[in-house]
Amino acid sequence: MEKLLQIEEYLEANKETFESQLIELLKIPSVSADSSFKTSMLEAANWIMHCFEAMKIPAELIPTEGHPIVLAEYHRDDSLPTVLVYGHYDVQPADPLDLWISKPFEPTVRDGNLYARGATDDKGQMFTHLASSQAWMNTVGELPCNIKYLIEGEEEIGSAHLEDFIEAHRERLKADVVVISDTCQLGPDQPAITVGLRGISYFEIFLQGPKQDLHSGSFGGAVTNPVNTLTQLLSSIINKEGQVQIPGFYDAVESLTEEEREQFSGLPFDEENFKEQVGVDGLSGEKGFTTNERRWARPSFDINGVTGGYAGEGAKTVLPAKANAKFSFRLVPKQDPKQIAIDLEKYLRDQLPPGIKMEFKAMHGSPGVVVPQTNPYLQAAVTAIEQGFGKTPYFIREGGSIPVVTTFYESLGLNTLLLGWGLNDDNTHSPNEKFHLADFHRGIRSSAYLWQAIREI
Ligand code: BES
Ligand code: MN
Ligand code: MN
């Protein structure tokens, strides 16, 4: 008890220090998707390395074929439980830049929020576990349990090298439970533990029509227009009732159970408020399901970007030579991203009209997960969040994906605690990303208590 008081005092006294540390990390533009930021990726990984070194936790920077991984290991005693903390130091591209009020890599505080790319996803959330460890190390001089920290730099591009890394380091990564803070609360002041995530399957297609752009008067109606074909192909993927039309797509999808539906509908959720948050006057989706069922427990299809033809000023009568689209499906557990790629490619090729060639690229995929709600570590997380937030967490699901959660379960047999400190309106992947500083500090506090609660299981 004495120790926890010391920790409380340290956290209170060091709020500004934690904020300025996070600000340093946020200044590094570690955009994993864009190779022109490669040196910043290394810089961010090194910053994290130094953070561990400063608190005397041994850490190693491990190169991969992509961006490096930071692995730190605090080992105290074999008889104590071992936690594996996962987080990511890479961020999404910051564009469109002109929509940011303050620049994405010049972190700025406004109204109690810290604005920067990566503020909540995931540098700010990930850093709560480093800050809580600093508090323990700098006061008590040790952590209450063994903790390993795996911080990667490729989450936002599908964690391409992580699965092999985990397979190759099975012994070193041995643990009792995984902890990840990279999700959201149910709402402001409504902390939540996420017990399910959707998977993803991401594709890009390139259509080639004539060898170069043509006059649409001389050739239109006789030569197939690849932009026309692209829009036809894309709209054939889903019908007006929100159902995906690829044969076999729903074969592995399990129906929601009555308990799940009750658990979802029992949560405080204000649809009007949700619409207001995203700025729309109506919602749509798969027929027969509620908004949260659609977001958390049913597959979905989204076109992420389309290019082709003339989009400049004025009218240009052209029959374009090329068209391209990036699109993705969110998946529920048991749907296999590899099978979906096979079925989808066939479905599209079968529809291709004469005069169009298609290049089909399956970019990345990972299945959805639901973690068992009987796992004893969940109770430790509930206790820790009650201490940190002064509120009992809700059990929710999320529609986003964290591919490594499945790998941890399948390769290492580990369950994950998804303890999210973010808010749904934090603008992740979007301009003006932010992290509510009160949540940052509540997250640090919850994390500090979590290590103790896990020890006491
Ligand atoms: N932190 C998110 C995952 C997330 C988003 C969880 C929303 C809960 C709610 C993560 O960084 C992310 O963006 N993941 C990608 C995964 C993809 C690139 C493989 C995603 O969901 O698009
Ligand atoms: Mn994330
Ligand atoms: Mn993300």
Mean pLDDT: 97
Question: Rg to the nearest angstrom?
Answer: 24 Å
CATH class value of the largest domain: Alpha Beta
- Strand content bin: 15-25%
Strand and helix map with partners:
Layout: H1 2-13, H2 15-26, H3 38-54, E1 59-62, E2 69-74, E3 82-88, E4 108-110, E5 113-115, H4 123-139, E6 146-152, H5 162-168, E7 177-180, E8 192-194, E9 196-197, E10 199-208, E11 214-215, H6 216-219, H7 226-237, H8 258-265, H9 271-278, H10 291-296, E12 300-308, E13 318-319, E14 322-331, H11 337-349, E15 357-366, E16 369-370, H12 376-389, E17 394-396, H13 404-412, E18 416-420, E19 434-436, H14 437-455
Parallel strand pairs: 3-6, 3-7, 7-18, 8-17
Antiparallel strand pairs: 1-2, 2-6, 4-5, 5-19, 8-18, 9-16, 10-14, 10-15, 11-13, 12-14
What does this structure look like?
The longest helix has 19 residues, at 437-455. The chain has 457 residues and is an alpha+beta fold. The protein has an 8-stranded mixed beta sheet, with helices on both faces. It has a 4-stranded antiparallel beta sheet with strand order 12-14-10-15, with helices on one face. A 3-stranded antiparallel beta sheet has the order 4-5-19. The protein has 2 domains: 2-197 and 369-455, Zn peptidases (Aminopeptidase), CATH 3.40.630; 199-263 and 294-366, Alpha-Beta Plaits (2-Layer Sandwich), CATH 3.30.70.360. Strand 1 and strand 2 (69-74) form a beta hairpin. Helix 1 (2-13) packs across helix 4, helix 4 (123-139) packs across helix 14 and helix 12 packs across helix 14. It starts with a helix and ends with a helix. The protein has helices at residues 2-13, 15-26, 38-54, 123-139, 162-168, 216-219, 226-237, 258-265, 271-278, 291-296, 337-349, 376-389, 404-412, 437-455; strands spanning 59-62, 69-74, 82-88, 108-110, 113-115, 146-152, 177-180, 192-194, 196-197, 199-208, 214-215, 300-308, 318-319, 322-331, 357-366, 369-370, 394-396, 416-420, 434-436. One manganese (II) ion binds next to loops. Residues 121-122, 155-156, 158, 182-184, 200, 364, 398, 400-403 line the site of ligand BES.
